[in-house]
Amino acid sequence: MKVLVSDRLHEVGLDLLRREAEVDYRPGLQGEEFRRALAGADALIIRSGTRVTAEDLVLARRLRVIGRAGVGVNNVDLEAATEAGVLVVNVPDANTISAAEHTLALLLALARNIPAADANLRRGGWDRKAFTGVELRGKILGIIGLGRIGGTVARLAASFGIKVLAHDPYVSSHPTAELVELDRLLKEADFVTVHCPLNAQTRGLLGRRELALMKGGSYLINVARGGIVDEAALAESLRAGHLAGVAADVFSTEPPPPDHPLLRAPRTVLTPHLGASTEEALRRNAVVVAEQVLAVLRGEPAANAVNQPPVEPDEWREAEPFFALAEAVGRLYAQLPRVNPGRIEIWCAGIPAGPCFDLVTGYALKGALATVLASPPNHINATRVAAKRGISVRATKLPDAPALSPYPDVVAMGDEDIRVAMSLAGSGYPRLVYLNGYRLDIAPGRFTLVTVHRDVPGVVGMVGTRLGQAGVNIASMQVARRLAGGEATMVVHLDEEPSPVSLAGMAGEGPIEQVYLLRLPGRLVNRADSAAS
Asked: Which end of the chain is more exposed for a tag (fewer CB within 10 A), N or C?
């Protein structure tokens, strides 16, 4: 496994990676050189310095995971990564304390004029009156975004005796903050700090109108993302004397150009994106991102997946057997005669509740599409690939599966009706339990022969003789029927693949109306082979 690291990463994370993978450590890699390196990588680890675009991912055929050693993933084209079947993981908790403490550091620096006073003293001044500040006690702090960092800022700020107002449409309550509408927060707060992600809803969230609503003489701190605040309007508000001060750790363009309006504005405290730049945070970021990337490469769950439902390790271990089962069901369904390629229905019973159900759907679609596409998808992008091809997909969780199987754990697929179903049979060994209206209980093999025939004597011997003449050994066999003398089906688990000629000779012979062969990759049936033997 090869891991490309294109931004600086703490050595402790690199050491972890080197234990299991070849590490290509080239911080600052850009352009065509970056794309060439990415084309040969199984994993990519970045911080904020690398931007991953759709064009970068075109030739990255081996790439399985992108690890962002930090919180924000706005420098990764998530749509393109998901389309390419690349899992994106981040480290949402590692920076929390560092970013929250940096917010309070900037807030205190503004309130007490610390940078300006320091600069004046170094120039030989001693103008104590010019740098008179304000106390935090008794003031109102407004927090926009009450996630991990914003919530931590609220708890830390409360120790100063500050009243905390917060605005977050996704939070219903908080122990140390009163939740209010954004306009009220802006009008009442003495200090406003921003802690929301940058996305289509928050870009330009604080523009001229919102800045004008802020209390005269108040302060604004942004340690979240540039682009959330209109920086030109912010500089105008400072020059007009409406705001008493601004602290910014982030900018819409980083580093900001020499003519950036905030660089020339008065009463500012500016830092070069230092929110996560503590020794402790850098170590945590490196360790957690390395552990997640290696877990994905080993086929294990990632706790902080961004573009698939996050799954806890215990949940993953419980649900993992269903993933291979679902993929096998999808592969079998797509090989059945007369399937409806425009509509796929998936049914599950026995799968633990939660995000694992969505993953089962992805694996089932992966199996179905793998049989018909030259570039098969994986469970991450299978749903998108199906949608792009006009395939309608619906997944339903069944409370139980008595009509399909004697076993409680089942994954089934069909179009309008169930066509194929498999079960783990309570032991982790896949069993084919339903096929085109017939209940079964047989371990599938790499090659499974299916016949549709009239229920008359001699069919089993006829099929066995034909296979014997072709030099194909039978591992196991089961016959199922609905009514004596009516239509029946036979499912035969074979050790070798029969030739097309031998199959063609069987179809239409006597009572045999139809013959077809189902194939499964060995990795999906090895357990079944063990159980059958």
From this structure: C
Determine contact, residues 137/160, Cβ cutoff 8 Å. Answer: yes
Q: For domain 96-270, give the CATH number.
A: 3.40.50.720
Contacts 24+ apart (CB under 8 A), 154-158: 156/100, 156/101, 156/104, 157/104, 157/107
Cα-trace Rg, the chain: 31
Among the listed residues 47, 225, 284, 419, the single catalytic one is 225
- Is residue 22 part of the annotated active site? The answer reads no
**Residue 434 carries which side chain, given as an amino acid letter?**
Y
Residue boundaries of the structural domains of the chain: 2-93+281-297, 96-270, 310-442, 446-533
H-assigned helices in 244-379? 261-264, 279-297, 313-335, 356-370
167 is catalytic: no
Topology at the third CATH level for domain 2-93+281-297: Rossmann fold (3.40.50)
Beta partners for 87? 65
CATH top-level class of 446-533: alpha beta
**Which CATH class, in words, describes the domain spanning 310-442?**
alpha beta
φ/ψ of residue 345, rounded to 5: -110, 140
Model confidence, pTM: 0.67
Instruction: In whole angstroms, give the CA distance from residue 68 to residue 45.
Output: 6
Phi/psi region, residue 145 (left: phi>0; alpha: psi -120 to 50; beta: rest), is: left
| Annotated catalytic residue, options 135, 254, 312, 513 | 254
**pLDDT by residue, tens only, the chain of 533 residues:** 999 999 999 999 999 999 999 999 999 999 999 999 999 999 999 998 899 999 999 989 899 999 999 887 889 998 899 888 899 999 888 888 999 999 999 999 999 999 999 999 999 999 899 999 999 999 999 999 998 899 999 999 999 999 999 999 888 888 999 999 999 999 999 999 999 988 888 999 999 999 999 999 999 999 999 999 999 999 999 999 999 999 999 999 999 999 999 999 999 999 999 998 899 999 999 999 999 999 889 888 777 888 877 677 777 777 888 888 999 999 999 899 887 778 888 888 887 666 778 888 888 998 888 877 766 677 888 888 888 888 888 888 777 655 677 788 889 999 878 889 999 876 667 889 999 889 998 988 889 999 999 999 988 998 998 888 888 999 889 999 888 888 999 999 998 898 888 787 787 778 998 899 999 887 777 543 433 33
Q: Is residue 493 within a helix (H) or strand (E), and if so which, with residue range?
A: strand 487-494
Sign of CA dihedral 367, 372, 378, 383: negative
